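Practice problem: predict the structure.
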Amino acid sequence: MSRLSHSEIHMVHRIGWLRAAVLGANDGLVSTASLVVGVAAAGSGRPEILIAGLAGLVAGAMSMAAGEYVSVSSQTDAEQADIARETRELKNTPKAELVELTRIYVGRGLDEGLARQIALQLTEKDALGAHSRDELGISETVTAHPIQAALVSAATFAVGAVVPLIISALVPAAQITLIVAVTTLIALSVLGGLGASAGGAGIVKGAVRVTFWGGLAMAATAAVGMLFGVTVG
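Answer:
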């Protein structure tokens, strides 16, 4: 059976939205759980805990969306500026650009004649596309998408943040700190493992890394909450 016709899915094809999704869910879960644990450790009641958590969810989702949009937009602006400059150079100095493209292929291991032949053919078909891809490293699979990244970040942050809120609303008030902390660590280990697996990395390493830093964040905010509760009390 011929295997010439097949479809391949590589990690780079989904790294943009995957990065935003994993970061959003992790941040939503860690930050809201930490906020809930800190407020609960200060001796606050369930209503205050839920209000603080809900406010953290909304503020965090908006912050993630804005931050991701600005960050990715800056990358997009840089890409567009490079493409505009390359367009001018192709128009004003086409021979020099052909030599430059040929040297790129020679640097990758092709002999001079073959490299020039490939450069000529690619230039005739799509000169800007060839230079964008091989000189600038910009291609369709890695092009930044600001709105997509912003929406994914906000949505996944909210999904992660709602978990400790639901737990806080259901469990006994006296056990909110402990149960939220434990369930968050479990969720973080699962999320870290899934994210690492989807990205092609080691599952255990990803789970341990995310769980450790999440636990550290909750411990720090719990300490602040307890200190604040003692001071106020």
